[in-house]
């Protein structure tokens, strides 16, 4: 377990204690220790598909059955996973600090389950547990935690506890790869996937004809308007003292761009990541921090 240099810990704590307005930008690395794979790197492959290539409107149009199988699997895994100590530490900071806001790129619902105050949690990329109608003339959108969401998506999954001792100790990015293959699991490409008919996929209960889709933000789609305006208002609201960039490769915009916007408002940057290479695009400056390690361990430590 890497230890945090004492001087960094002290300077960070001192700065946090005197901070009035703070942002936290979250990415998939935050939930890695809860057993959920990241997008890029070793964990980012689902069967033979690059997870990123399935997260597009084009993939859904081409093969809604395959994309629903991918999201149904992820809904199941996210429901089975537990928030880790970092989710709880951030939720506690959000409760304690008035001028605090979390910008989460994660869709797994773990921050919500760690009781993060909802008004201080902006879900930039939506949620696995939202569904919306694809019929242009229908505005149906709802929360739905049913697992599986329709009988045809009741697929074999590895029921090994993702927070088992082995999983907890695995290096997060390889964690998914290590677990698969232990049991029948649809994330394993050697397990046959049934080809689904469109009629078997989730349909809209309101208009009765539109196909439902996951309420997440795919490439080329706009982020939710209310989320964008809340974040813009926060950023415009005065000096920002600190932005914590936790478990994200900071490659996807506009999320990654919030780091530069916070810097323009005076923020010092603290990056928490397993990989030293994954700092924000414009790099770290003197007075910023890089805390290397598993977010689930580092975040509670620096927020203690
Ligand atoms: C650990 C760890 C441990 C591991 N502890 N750390 C400006 C310039 C260029 C392009 C654009 C631009 N503005 C917009 C675009 C286009 C596009 C974009 O950004 N492209 C880039 C790739 C260049 N953006 C969009 O399309 C966005 N829409 C938009 O801007 O609309 C207007 C517009 C459209 C088109 C053109 C211009 C404007 C929408 C982006 C939606 C992203 N959606 C996804 C899928 C969500 C649904 C789902 O979950 O399936 O969001 S993609 C995927 O990436 C997901 C994630 O939230 C997001 C970020 O990934 P994240 O979380 O950073 O994960 P990883 O895997 O990349 O990184 C994990 C990190 O954790 C690594 O660093 C590890 O080291 C680390 N780690 N274990 C600590 N234990």
Q: Could you characterize what this model shows?
A:
The chain is an alpha/beta fold. The chain folds into two domains: 1-36 and 83-125 and 223-304, Rossmann fold, CATH 3.40.50; 38-80 and 128-216, SIR2/SIRT2 'Small Domain', CATH 3.30.1600.10. Helices cover 32% and strands 16% of the residues. It has eleven helices and eleven strands. It has helices at 6-18, 51-54, 57-62, 64-80, 85-96, 110-113, 165-169, 172-179, 225-236, 257-264, 295-302; strands at residues 21-26, 45-46, 49-50, 99-104, 121-123, 126-133, 141-143, 212-216, 242-246, 268-273, 289-292. The strands form three sheets. The chain has a six-stranded parallel β-sheet with strand order 5-4-1-9-10-11, with helices on both faces. The chain has a three-stranded antiparallel β-sheet with strand order 7-6-8, covered by helices on one side. The protein has a two-stranded antiparallel ribbon with strand order 2-3. Strand 4 (99-104), helix 6 (110-113) and strand 5 (121-123) form a beta-alpha-beta unit. Helix 5 packs parallel to helix 11. 40% of the residues are buried.
- Annotated CATH topology of the largest domain: Rossmann fold
Which CATH C-level class of the largest domain is it?
Alpha Beta
List the total number of helices: 11
Listing every helix as H and every strand as E from the N terminus to the C terminus, the arrangement reads HEEEHHHHEHEEEHHEHEHEEH
Mean pLDDT: 90
Structure classification? alpha/beta
Number of strands: 11
| First-to-last CA distance | 17 Å
Strand residue percentage: 15-25%
What key phrases describe this protein's structure?
alpha/beta; Rossmann fold; 304 residues; 2 domains; SIR2/SIRT2 'Small Domain'; single chain; three-stranded antiparallel beta sheet; binds ligand BJW
